Amino acid sequence: MKNIRIIATSTFGLESCIKREAQRLGFENIKAFDGKVEFDGDESDIAKANIWMRFPSKILIKVGEFKAVTFDSLFESVKALNWGDWIPVDGKFTVIGKSVKSTLHSVPDCQAIVKKAVVEKLKIKYNVDWFDETGADYTIQVALLNDIATITIDTTGASLHKRGYRQNAMDAPLKETLAAAMLDLSYWRKNRILLDPMCGSGTIAIEAAMIARNIAPGLNRSFACEQWQRVGKDIFKAIRVEAYKAIDYNVNTIIYGSDIDPDAIELAKQNAEKAGVDDCITFEVKPLKDVTLMGDYGCMITNPPYGERIGELKIVEELYKTLGKIMATNQTWSSYVITSMEYFEKLFGKKADAKRKLFNGRIKTDYYQFYGPRPPKGWNEDIN
Ligand SMILES: C[S@@+](CC[C@H](N)C(=O)[O-])C[C@H]1O[C@@H](n2cnc3c(N)ncnc32)[C@H](O)[C@@H]1O
Questions:
Q1: Same-domain check for residues 268 and 347
Q2: For the chain, which terminal residue's Cβ has fewer other Cβ atoms within 10 angstroms, N or C?
Q3: Ligand 1 touching residue 198 (CB < 6 A)
Q4: Strand order through the sheet with 363-370
Q5: Which amino acid residue places its CA nearest to atom 14 of ligand 1?
Q6: Rg, C-alpha atoms of the chain
Q7: Residue nearest to atom 27 of ligand 1 (CA)
Q8: Residue 51: which of 183, 155, 138, 151 has the closest Cα?
Q9: Residues 114-127: what's their mean pLDDT?
Q10: Ligand 1 contacts CB of residue 261 (under 6 A)
Q11: Same domain flag for 267 and 353
């Protein structure tokens, strides 16, 4: 029975990508809100969402949602929820919280009250007075927004951008979830050439190769709810077995990543190898000025330096001008650049066809999109 309400949390601007992804994965009753997408599912869908979703930060279970303007009503409403359905007698449960535009604005007090209410409910369920909390982790969140409390349990653990392939990173790496969403928002598909000419530790190129090869992003990591009685290892094992079978080892895709920094390229190569896609990507040490566009209808997607460091601005302005000149050499290509620089289009020499506000960590950025023409019908369709 699909009677669990599942929440995929989103960083600002990625909700539509997550909604489409939930549709592709066959989840039911999907609804997008600011910062999250909800859908119905069962235990197997929780595992599927964790292993297969490329764009969310976390997969949560919605245990309850209600109005709360007093601590008493918060306590009673949380106590009324069926905590025993999820948390066993030895479960370790921590409560985190946030409060936005709400009467109950003291987050530590809300957390303490929620913890007390859960303890009281579980005491009745298990007929004990004390919990040792020596078992699996259950991180409960109380999130207040406009006096509505949403109570969740985190099934993911370490955030979903931690795929397990990037042990080290150079300066200012993109989160893997954001890199995957930038690809999803572009014209790039596996039959088109992809180029990241300032690839750093290779995140965009590696995420593209994982999509092309149909490698589930969460295949090589563990999740909090694998330790839970109710979800557990067997369900994850079944989803992983299917995910391994779904990998397309013979995919024919062309991905280039280059960077001026040899250390970054070395790291990108190591990361690609860990992700199992090193044979899909050509990484090269190359300054931007020497980059040329090979083939037609390719996509250039990049996260360049933003010019925010002291002394960097003039260099970055020149870099953006150079990028614009390179992309002007072949009008069939599409270009996608994420940057916080407000006059980027002026330097690039072209007005973007679309701009989307995104957050790269805490930095407010725009994702500039310059569309090339659609390839003629039948073009390169035989490549895969
Ligand atoms: C913000 S970082 C990219 C991070 C990358 N997206 C990642 O996830 O690791 C910008 C990159 O631009 C590279 N870069 C700066 N100037 C360059 C130039 N003239 N030619 C090529 N790459 C350059 C830097 O070495 C750096 O790796």
A1: yes
A2: N
A3: yes
A4: 281-285, 255-259, 194-196, 299-302, 334-339, 363-370, 354-360
A5: 198
A6: 23
A7: 200
A8: 155
A9: 97
A10: yes
A11: yes
pLDDT tens per residue, range 279-326? 999 999 999 999 999 999 999 999 999 998 878 999 999 999 999 999
Q: What domain count does the chain have?
A: 2
210-222 pLDDT per residue, tens = 999 999 999 999 9
Domain CATH code at residue 324: 3.40.50.150
131 and 230 share one domain: no
Token pair for 296:
């037609």
Say if CB 36 and CB 8 are below 8 A apart.
yes
Residue whose CB lies within 8 A of the most ligand 1 atoms, among 183, 198, 206, 302, for a mutation test: 198
Please report where in the chains the tokens 């909390």 appear, as a residue.
133
User: Are 341 and 379 spatial neighbours (Cβ–Cβ below 8 Å)?
Assistant: no
C-beta of 200 in contact with ligand 1 (< 6 A): yes
Which of 256, 258, 260 should be mutated for ligand 1, with most atoms under 8 A from CB? 260
Range of the domain at 55: 4-154
- Retrieve residue 115's tokens: 């913890």
| Residue finishing a domain among 122, 154, 186 | 154
**181 and 308 housed in the same domain:** yes
Least confident interval from 70-84, 142-156, 159-173, 318-332 = 159-173
pTM, rounded to two decimals: 0.96
